[in-house]
Amino acid sequence: MTIYEYIESIKEQPACLGGVLRFEGTNDQVQVLDGANKRITLAADARCKLLVVHRTAQNVSMEVELGERAVLTMAVLYPENGVGAEGKVQVVQQEASRLQMTALQLASSTLQVEVDLVARDAESVVNALFAIGAEEQSRLSIRTNHRSSDCRSSSVVRGLAGGKAVGAFDGMVYVAPDAQRTDAFQQNRNMLLSETARIDTKPQLEIYADDVKCSHGATVGQMDNEAIYYMRQRGLDEQQARRLQLTGFADDLVMRCGCEQLCELLMEELNHKLDRI
Amino acid sequence: MLKVTNLHATVDGKEILRGINLEVKAGEVHAIMGPNGSGKSTFASVLAGNEKFTVTEGSVEFLGEDLLDLSIEDRARKGLFLGFQYPVEIPGVTMANFMKLAVNEQRKYRGEEPLTAAEYLKLMREKAKVVELDTKMTSRAVNEGFSGGEKKKNEIFQMAMLDPKLAILDETDSGLDIDALRVVATGVTKLHTAENATVVITHYQRLLDYIVPDYVHVLYKGRIIYSGDRSLALKLEKEGYDWLINDLKE
Description:
The complex is a heterodimer of chains A (277) and B (250). Chain A has one domain. Helix content of chain A is 18%, strand content 50%. Chain A is built from four helices and 16 strands. Chain A is globular. Chain A starts with a helix and ends with a helix. In chain A, 47% of the residues are buried. Chain B is an alpha/beta fold. Chain B has eight helices and twelve strands. Chain B has a six-stranded mixed beta sheet, sandwiched between helices. A four-stranded antiparallel beta sheet of chain B has the order 2-1-4-5, covered by helices on one side. Chain B has a two-stranded antiparallel ribbon with strand order 7-8. In chain B, strand 11 and strand 12 form a beta hairpin. The longest helix of chain B is centred in the middle third of the chain and has 15 residues, at 95-109. The two termini of chain B are 35 Å apart. The mean pLDDT of chain B is 93.
């Protein structure tokens, strides 16, 4: 099922008066939101799954607050046929809340994610992938602010650029002076598919506490020709081998989105793009 | 099955193969030995179609066709398998998925229907046994984080899955402890039939205790300088290559 078929199939859209949404209790169904300004609140202990689809070129900002022990599984999608959308997602997390966000940029777009971990034991997982080709340009920035002690954050970002595409990633993990026992991880891997594509990456850490565990890293590489030769020696043609390598690079990030239904919807979009990049 | 005539090949303008002649018939096992840098791995790579090397002279006939005219994948689909000395890692791609694509691609080439999921699983389980491979391995990314022994077992597992006409095993024994060597070599022997052929490239006679060759060839400076039967390998083990090389100089 494509995302659009899924949207059609949902009978009840979330009530969203004046862009304000509040979730309580457990909501199993994936709710779809268009890319319009919103304030989203998850009450204490609430659980919900959201899919935000940016189809139009507008400037959108979302503010999300996760109450104590709330769990939000969220995907932000800039679909292949979307154009130049700009989005900003700001998340504030209370004690023991958990955010699992997957962002997928499959067209020219700008996404800014900022997460504030304001109370202990909060956990944030933000994974993002951009896959762009032709003359597309995408920018992604993820800033995680550890403002309380004993919080965990992880952010895995992958970038794929072909044609004359230009991608940029800007990552920042900030650890406040009293945010002791912070555990933060940030990783960025990129693959250039052509001589003319470009990816800039800027992973940064700013640490003011002394009892923390933080790691980060970034790489930019190309297709592995040895691997392509290896696959062809087993009978795959060159295109299949290249495609399989892309799949291997991008798939697992999407598959870890934390909700099977979301994964399927996102994979469909991703596969479509990877066939054409 | 395979007929190599006066094969010359270069890499970056440097001639590595300087006129190799070799004929391999169905049912045969050939061993190619030789000192480091003699061109053994280059020979295997050229047969597989590695684009790093340029064939400058000579011909290779495989199952009645001009092998050098075929793409890497068509050589594979026709039944030529190369066991890599250094198997390549493919992050994020599971062994099971990779092999499924490969098996079905080869079937398609032969005009056969793709295997169903159930048939494929059955085949995988059956073939994993050949090299005592834990089927759990097949859900891991290709060669990623595999030990040296696992990588080589995995090569033979792939050989079992693809059932090639001609398998060229490039130093499949390097980096193996004695138990892994036995498993790998026994696997290769199990796969040998009267219809297929195997060419093993090796430094050590040890491997040939398990995979008993019909012919042993010595490759030196890009040429096969001497061929013999199994006893040649034993003699080389004991006396090295010097006597052959000195002979050549005289």
